[in-house]
Amino acid sequence: MPIDFSLTEEQKQLQALARRFAREVILPVAREYDEKEEVPWPVIEKLHEVGLLNAIIPEEYGGMGLKMLDEVIVGEELAYAAWASTPSPWQAT
Fold first, then answer.
1. For the chain, is the Cβ count within 10 Å smaller at the N or the C terminus?
2. How many CA atoms, within 13 angstroms, populate the side-chain half-sphere of residue 88?
3. Residue 83: pLDDT above 70?
């Protein structure tokens, strides 16, 4: 029996949100933070605001309560625009 690796509709929406965030928020400032070797606190705050920083935290603690695969989907999309010298702060959560 074949295994279906297709994303759910919710996962596709989460992927689109993360991809849009990467392109519109991270990518425009990535080089600046990379050159300064600074932690991009404004970006991290925006990640939290849209729920991408706390995706797998249970809802009762302020997160989205999503699964680990959902976090991997988000991390993959955000890594597209990540800066080189600064660690990926969203993956430290």
1. N
2. 16
3. no
